[in-house]
Structure formats: structure tokens, C-alpha cells
Amino acid sequence: MKKFRLYFDKDKETAWLNDMAAQGYALTSFFAGIYTFDTCAPNKYTYQVDFCDKFGNVSEDYREFMKDNDIEIVQIWGFWIFLRKRNADGPFELYTDIDSSIEHYTKIRNMFKGASIFMIFCFLIECYAMSQAPSLFPLVLILGAMTYSIIHTAFKTNRIIADLKEQKGEPINPSNRPAPILIIGLLLNSVALISESLPDIVEYTLRITAIALIVYGIVKTFSHNEL
Fold it and tell me: CA 116 to CA 146: how far, in whole Å?
């Protein structure tokens, strides 16, 4: 059986995989949002989703550690590792203390920060392309939705880190608002898109300035939200 889903939240993805396993469907592979399941005894496995330090690869020490703990690496995809363990072999938890959990989610947050900047840059390029070819509007909508989801996940991961640090008694002062310069950049880009009477040199200058402000605004937004 195959199912298509797009998850940016690895905790929700883990919960879904374990719900499928409880129903008697074991994940056997993953590729670009396509999950392949085989039938199995209900509740045979517990699944976890881990994060790679290197894109698409894990160390031999990591593999040996998982093998020694009866944990199977089902699939490595990008920065994500799909793991499972037979329930008969005992409970399966990856990060059992606060410090290791903070380190884990910090790596995930940093990855989503970089992805957010990249996706916004791609989104702006598509917006410009759409202004020249309106038929690209559906693609811009899809790209915009993905960009929003990635940024939302970065902020959500930040809140998880804040909660973990609060459990340790560390003072926190998280902000969930974007930097003002990001808003200015987005507005400037909108002006460049909708203004048809501007000279080309002015329009290009506005676009380049808007992109620079947006990228800088994203960096500032996330730096303000560093805990």
C-alpha cells in the first residue's frame, strides 16, 4: 500500500506512522512524500524519525548503535532517518533527557531556517515570473503554501526548544513576530509586482532591494527568536 503525504513536522509524522503501525501497516520505504507500507501484526513496531547530521548519510557508529539496540534503519531521506523497533524488544525512545532533546530540535530548527530563506528566494523568483506569465499562478500558490509551512515549522520548533529550556529553569524571552524589515521587503516587492508604469531600471532596483530586505529580514527574524 502506498500513501502520499507531505510532512514538515516530524513529530506529527512520527505519530502518524505509529498510528499506521497500530492498524497493522508497517512502513518499508519513503520517497518524495510517498510512503510504502506492508501489512504486519498490529502494534508490531514503534517508529521514530531522527535527524541526520549529514545530508542523506549516517556514520557507521550510528548504524552500529542502532543495530546494538535492535533498531532498524528503514529509510534515509535527505536529513531524515526513519527508524523502527519491534515492540517485543522493549520501548523505543531516541532522546530521553532535556539536553539531548534541545540539541536535536536545535539542529532541526537550523535546517528549517536555511530552508526558509531558500524557499522565500524561490517564491520571489516565481512571483516575478508570474508577473510575466500569469499562467504560473497555480505554481506560485503551491510554492507559497510550502514556504509558509516551512517557516511555520521553524517557529514551532523554536517553541519546542523554549518549552524544553523552560523545564530546565533557563530564562527565555521568545518572540514570534517577524522583523519589521521583513514586512518592508514584502511590501516593496508587492509594489514592484503591481506597478506597471515604472521604468525598467526602477522596477529592477525595487525588486533587488526587496529581495535583499526580505532575506535580511528572515535572518533577523530567526536571530531574534534564538533562545
Answer: 10
